[in-house]
Specification:
By secondary structure, the chain is α/β, with parallel strands linked by helices. The protein is 45% helix and 16% strand. It is built from five helices and six strands; from the N terminus they run βαββαβαββαα.
Length: 150
């Protein structure tokens, strides 16, 4: 059965992910580095991992498999999930795929380099209602795809 794994630290769509999971009767696992108030539900599991770099990412990557779905803004985690046969979706509703993950990783590396050298200060666009809507649509499509076994 499909499981939705949410990289919960700084995830703006925790409630939306639960709505989709509830609608389809799917288990949802929220993984974070610290305890946080999270949505409740019958099929909700909360996991608090030890503090440390990438501890939540490692926990998810070690358990996710074919037919599962990851909700994460972390591009390296998305790449690991795709490699495991799972689907990965960013909070703004952008699905990561075999075809797009290489470019996403390269852009992440380039942007990190530009920030480190002072060429760029970075920019985080605000999270919009349209982002939330795109996420709901993308997660719904991912669940349907998982149910079809594709």
């Amino acid at each position: 059965m499909t499981v939705i794994y949410v990289d919960a630290d700084a995830c703006p769509v925790k409630e939306e992910a639960l709505r989709v999971a509830d609608r389809h009767g799917l288990k949802i696992v929220y993984v974070s580095n610290t305890w946080m108030r999270l949505p409740e539900g019958l099929l909700v599991e909360r996991v608090v991992v030890a503090e440390g770099p990438d501890a939540a990412d490692d926990w998810i990557a070690e358990r996710i498999g074919k037919g599962d779905i990851a909700v994460t803004a972390d591009i390296p985690l998305a790449a690991r999930c795709i490699k495991a046969g799972a689907q990965a979706i960013g909070p703004q509703g952008k699905p990561f795929t075999d075809a797009s993950i290489g470019m996403a990783l390269a852009m992440r590396e380039l942007n990190q380099h530009l920030r480190e050298t002072g060429e760029s200060r970075g920019f985080n666009a605000s999270f919009t209602r349209q982002d939330r809507s795109r996420f709901l649509e993308a997660l719904e499509l991912a669940v349907q795809k998982a149910k079809r076994g594709q």
